[in-house]
Amino acid sequence: MSMKQLTLRGMSRDIEKRIREVAKKEGVSLNKAALRLLQRGTQTSTSEVAAEEKIGHSLDKFFGIMSKEEADAIMETNKVFDVIDQELWK
To answer: Does some domain include residue 60?
Structure first.
């Protein structure tokens, strides 16, 4: 299958803004972001895009924002869940 090119004229600023947002969020080129949006909008996602969507990126914004101290505090608090009540398992 050959790759086709298409020139779009009269694109609104809102569409351009959305393409740029997707490109930045997903770390891809403007071209790839535009293709992804078109595929999603027309429900013609390729297996590559569909696989990426299955994994999802909705929690990406939370990666790396917790300090080591905060993580340690959470781990300490969760230690109570490591204890097995032997009476309940008889």
So the answer is: yes
Residue 47 lies in a domain: yes
pLDDT tens column, 42-89? 877 665 555 555 556 677 777 778 888 998 999 999 998 888 888 887
Candidates 66, 68, 69, 39; CA nearest to 53 is 39
- Locate the DSSP E strands across 2-48: none
Domain count, the chain: 1
Concatenate the DSSP letters of all residues of 9-66 into one string. -S--HHHHHHHHHHHHHHT--HHHHHHHHHHHHHT---HHHHHHHHH--TTGGGTT-S
- pLDDT tens for each residue of 14-46: 999 999 999 999 899 999 999 989 888 887 766
pTM: 0.47
Rounded Cα gap, residues 65 and 29, in angstroms: 25
